[in-house]
């Protein structure tokens, strides 16, 4: 006859499982959609931005003359930033649709989503990168598990003093931890930038596939425009609200067990390049790679 475990033992086991699964971690709050003009403004080629639905939706246009872009009105030192984007459909080779954060100085920090177009029928490539002190070279590339041209999907960055997490539709596709021995962006406020531009010298198959201008104009659509961050002057070295915002709490210092399993699934099934495993460029694995569970 099987002996039943005591309530105390069951409680202990459940507690250990709770801790092992990342008990103090949590998923980011749901982004709040707002009109474009609340948080953003155009930066160049204003006539290539079109507004719809009372300014809640916009499109960016790229033709043989110019691309276009927009940026946040404020600068932010940590926060949660999200954008809903529908990529350029059809033959988008040579084009780059970008959503990124960047500080404005020579030794700048940067957090990048870059969507690299491709020939009709071939998948988009999502490239992420992190710059610290003006140095990047931390590229990772994945195929998405859906067609990003068919509908809007959410792309988000959670950035605090402990980690940077890239999300696609709430799935973490990359984490970059603040670890000893590796530089981390923590003291330079960043603006958020979005753009559609021609990069056929490198974007598709290393520049082998050129932009087919007979397919122009190329159109990408944006909505959502969510910003929940610590707004600071570009000269600020720290966030005045540090420790007070939801994304600054203990629950967001790490991913939980479910999130790490999702990240591992992305690594296993969709990753096509990871600087962490590139021994030609990095004979010694960068210190953050094991901490970030990128290998």
Automatic annotation (TrEMBL):
Active site (record annotation): 110, 114
Any one Gene Ontology cellular component term annotated for this protein? apoplast
Instruction: Give the Pfam families listed for this entry.
Output: Glyco_hydro_16, XET_C
Q: What is its main location?
A: secreted
Which positions, given as ranges, span the membrane? Answer: none
PTM comment: the record says: Contains at least one intrachain disulfide bond essential for its enzymatic activity.
The signal peptide here is: 1-25
A GO BP entry is: cell wall biogenesis
Mind listing the UniProt keywords for this protein, alphabetically? Apoplast, Cell wall, Cell wall biogenesis/degradation, Disulfide bond, Glycoprotein, Glycosidase, Hydrolase, Secreted, Signal, Transferase
Query: What's a Gene Ontology MF term here?
Result: xyloglucan:xyloglucosyl transferase activity
Q: Which residues are glycosylated?
A: 118
Q: Does the keyword Cell wall biogenesis/degradation apply?
A: yes
InterPro entries linked: Beta-glucanase-like, Beta-glucanase/XTH, ConA-like_dom_sf, GH16_AS, XET_C, XTH
The EC number of this protein is: 2.4.1.207
Tell me where it resides. Secreted, Cell wall; Secreted, Extracellular space, Apoplast
Superkingdom field: Eukaryota
Q: Which residues form the GH16 domain?
A: 27-222
* Family in the record: Belongs to the glycosyl hydrolase 16 family.
So what does this one do?
Catalyzes xyloglucan endohydrolysis (XEH) and/or endotransglycosylation (XET). Cleaves and religates xyloglucan polymers, an essential constituent of the primary cell wall, and thereby participates in cell wall construction of growing tissues.
Q: What is this protein called?
A: Xyloglucan endotransglucosylase/hydrolase
- Recorded source organism is Papaver somniferum (Opium poppy)
């Amino acid at each position: 006859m099987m002996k039943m475990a005591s309530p105390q033992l069951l409680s202990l086991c459940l507690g250990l499982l709770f801790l092992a699964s990342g008990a103090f971690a949590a998923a980011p709050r749901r982004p709040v959609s707002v009109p474009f003009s609340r948080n953003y403004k155009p930066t160049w080629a204003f006539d290539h931005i079109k507004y719809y639905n009372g300014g809640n939706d916009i499109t960016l246009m790229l033709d043989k003359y110019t691309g276009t872009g927009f940026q946040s009105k404020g600068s932010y030192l940590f926060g949660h930033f999200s954008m809903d984007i529908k990529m350029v459909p059809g033959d988008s080779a040579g084009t780059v649709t970008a959503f990124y954060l960047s500080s404005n100085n020579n030794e700048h920090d940067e957090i990048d989503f870059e969507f690299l177009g491709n020939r009709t029928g071939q998948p988009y490539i999502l490239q992420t990168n992190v710059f610290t002190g003006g140095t990047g070279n931390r590229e990772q590339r994945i195929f998405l598990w859906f067609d990003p041209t068919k509908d809007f999907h959410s792309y988000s960055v959670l950035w605090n003093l402990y980690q940077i997490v890239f999300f696609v539709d709430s799935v973490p596709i990359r984490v970059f931890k603040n670890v000893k021995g590796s530089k981390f962006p923590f003291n330079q406020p960043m603006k958020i930038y979005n753009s559609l531009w021609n990069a056929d010298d490198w974007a598709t198959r290393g520049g082998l596939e050129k932009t087919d201008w007979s397919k122009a104009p190329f159109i990408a659509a944006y909505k959502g425009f969510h910003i929940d961050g610590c707004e600071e002057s570009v000269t600020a070295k720290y966030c005045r609200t540090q420790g007070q915002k939801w994304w600054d709490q203990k629950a967001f210092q790490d991913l939980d067990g479910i999130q790490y399993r999702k990240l591992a699934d992305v690594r296993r099934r969709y990753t096509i390049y990871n600087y962490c495993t590139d021994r030609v460029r990095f004979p010694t694995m960068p210190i953050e790679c094991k901490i970030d569970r990128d290998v």
